[in-house]
């Protein structure tokens, strides 16, 4: 999938914002990714609701080490944004793009299991280590899928409003 320079900058910016939130201990992995996607694409969730919805996915579902929390947050964000608008995306489109998100994350990192992804990380250390990269990557991949011309065109056909906030588009247009 080809991306314009503006789209690449938006993806990088979104990934960086999620990484900074997670790295600052303001939010766990799943919370940081969902909150960033929600804000970037005007998802409509307030911070407390975002945290409430995604808290259980931290650390691979309640620290169980299962599916990566960052990936879970990205799937929640993708689903949220695709469901916005007067005619939300149909179930097939949401599932197809969720699988695409999963597959891209897996191809990039070699696993989707938190336990496997973070096996070399010292969980007692203050540093979030490699998980910072997973948070950044999950948010960026989700953003790229939402900005994909095919996804945007599908939403336009269904009468939905543009995904991206005008302030973000204006900011990146200046770059």
Topology of this protein?
Elements lengths: L4 H19 L5 H12 L6 H8 L14 H14 L8 H19 L4 H4 L13 H17 L1 H9 L8 H8 L2
Short key terms for the protein model shown above:
175 residues, mainly alpha, 63% helix, globular, disordered C terminus
Describe the overall structure.
By secondary structure, the protein is mainly alpha-helical. It is built from 9 helices and no strands. The C terminus is likely disordered.
Distance between the termini: 22 Å
Low-confidence stretches: 169-175
The number of helical elements comes to 9
Helix content: 55-70%
Shape: globular
Number of strands: 0
Helix/strand order, N-terminal first: HHHHHHHHH
Largest beta-sheet details: none
Mean of the pLDDT scores?
Answer: 86
Residue fraction in strands: under 5%
> In angstroms, what is the radius of gyration?
15 Å
Structural class: mainly alpha
Short description:
By secondary structure, the chain is mainly α. The protein has helices spanning 5-23, 29-40, 47-54, 69-82, 91-109, 114-117, 131-147, 149-157, 166-173.
